C-alpha cells in the first residue's frame, strides 16, 4: 500500500500538515528576517484584501503562534473526524468569510493570525452539535465548551492588541455554516423491521414480519426497504416434548 495514501487517511494528517505550514511560514520569517505583518488584513483598504488569504498564516511572534497551534490542530482534527466530507469546505470558506467580515468591520490596524479560523471551527463544532440532534455530536459540543468556552470573552474588546473583530467574525461565520449544513448533520431516522424466523416440527420454514407495535405486516407492500431500514432476525424453535 502507498504510505502517503495510508497516512492521508489518518484524522491527524491534514490538520497536522496545515499546522506545520503555519510554523514553516514563521520559520521563513525568522531565518530570512522577513516581516509579513504588512500582508495582514487592513480593513477597508483595497490592498488590505490580500490579508484575507495571507493573514491566517502570519503571526506576530512565537508566543502568538504557539497560542494558536494546539487549538487550531485540535479543532481541525475534530472537524475532519466528525464532518470529513465537509472538512475542506468549512476550512477554506471559514478562512475566506472570516477574513472578509474582519475586513469590513474591524478597526484600522493590521489583523493577523489563524485565531479567526479557530473561532469559526469552535463555533461550527458547538452549534453543529446543537443542530444535529445527534448524541455524539452534542457530546462534542459539550467538550468544546469545556475546552474552549473561555474563548468567548475574546470576542469583545477586552484586551488591547487582540483582534476581537476577527474572533467575532469567526464566531458568526461558524454559526452560519453550522446552520447552512444542519440538514447534512441531522441524525437519520431509522425504520425498524423486525423479522421472525419460525421452524415448525416438520422443519417447514416460513417467515413472519411485524413492526415495532407487534402488528404483523407484509414488508414488500407496506414497508419500503431502504438503506435506513434495520432488519433484526432471530430464530425460534419450539421445545420438544
How many H/I helices? 9
Structural class: mainly alpha
Order of helices and strands: HHHHHHHHEEHE
CATH-defined fold name of the largest domain: Rhomboid-like fold
Q: Quote the beta fraction.
A: 5-15%
Share of helix, binned: 40-55%
What is the annotated CATH architecture of the largest domain?
Answer: Up-down Bundle
The CATH H-level homologous superfamily of the largest domain: Rhomboid-like
Give the overall silhouette.
globular
- Number of beta strands: 3
Biggest beta sheet summary: 3 strands, mixed
Unreliable spans are 1-5, 188-206, 220-239
| N-end to C-end Cα span | 58 Å
Which strands sit side by side, in order, in the main sheet? 2-1-3
Average pLDDT rating: 81
Radius of gyration, in Å, reads 26 Å
How many domains, as an integer?
Answer: 2
**What is the CATH C-level name of the largest domain?**
Mainly Alpha
Architecture overview:
- The protein is mostly helical and 241 residues long.
- The chain is built from 9 helices and 3 strands.
- The chain has 2 domains: 3-184, Rhomboid-like fold (Up-down Bundle), CATH 1.20.1540; 191-236, no CATH class.
- It has a 3-stranded mixed sheet, with no helix packed on it.
- The radius of gyration is 26 Å and the shape is globular.
- The relative contact order is 0.11.
- Residues 1-5, 188-206 and 220-239 have low confidence and may be disordered.
Question: How does the SSE layout of this entry go?
Answer:
Blueprint: H1 3-8, H2 13-32, H3 51-54, H4 62-82, H5 87-105, H6 115-132, H7 135-148, H8 164-180, E1 191-199, E2 205-210, H9 219-222, E3 229-236
Parallel strand pairs: 1-3
Antiparallel strand pairs: 1-2
Helix pairs in contact: 2-4, 4-6, 5-6, 5-8, 6-7, 6-8
Amino acid at each position: 500500500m502507498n504510505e502517503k495514501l495510508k497516512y492521508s487517511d489518518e484524522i491527524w494528517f491534514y490538520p497536522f500538515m496545515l499546522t506545520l505550514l503555519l510554523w514553516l511560514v514563521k520559520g521563513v520569517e525568522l531565518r530570512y528576517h522577513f516581516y509579513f505583518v504588512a500582508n495582514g488584513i487592513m480593513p477597508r483598504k483595497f490592498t488590505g484584501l490580500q490579508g484575507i488569504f495571507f493573514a491566517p498564516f502570519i503571526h506576530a511572534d512565537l508566543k502568538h503562534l504557539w497560542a494558536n497551534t494546539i487549538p487550531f490542530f485540535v479543532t481541525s482534527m475534530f472537524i475532519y473526524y466528525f464532518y470529513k466530507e465537509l472538512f475542506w469546505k468549512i476550512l477554506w470558506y471559514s478562512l475566506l468569510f472570516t477574513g472578509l467580515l474582519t475586513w469590513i468591520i474591524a478597526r484600522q490596524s493590521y489583523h493577523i493570525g489563524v485565531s479567526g479560523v479557530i473561532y469559526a471551527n469552535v463555533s461550527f463544532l458547538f452549534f453543529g452539535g446543537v443542530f444535529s440532534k445527534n448524541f455524539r455530536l452534542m457530546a462534542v459540543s459539550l467538550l468544546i465548551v469545556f475546552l474552549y468556552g473561555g474563548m468567548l470573552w475574546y470576542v469583545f474588546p477586552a484586551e488591547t492588541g487582540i483582534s476581537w473583530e476577527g474572533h467575532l467574525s469567526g464566531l458568526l461565520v461558524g454559526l452560519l455554516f453550522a446552520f447552512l449544513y444542519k440538514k447534512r448533520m441531522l441524525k437519520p431516522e431509522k425504520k425498524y423491521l423486525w423479522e421472525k424466523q419460525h421452524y415448525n416440527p416438520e422443519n417447514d420454514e416460513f417467515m413472519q414480519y411485524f413492526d415495532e407495535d407487534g402488528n404483523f405486516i407484509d414488508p414488500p407492500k407496506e414497508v419500503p426497504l431502504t438503506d435506513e431500514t434495520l432488519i433484526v432476525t432471530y430464530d425460534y424453535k419450539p421445545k420438544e416434548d
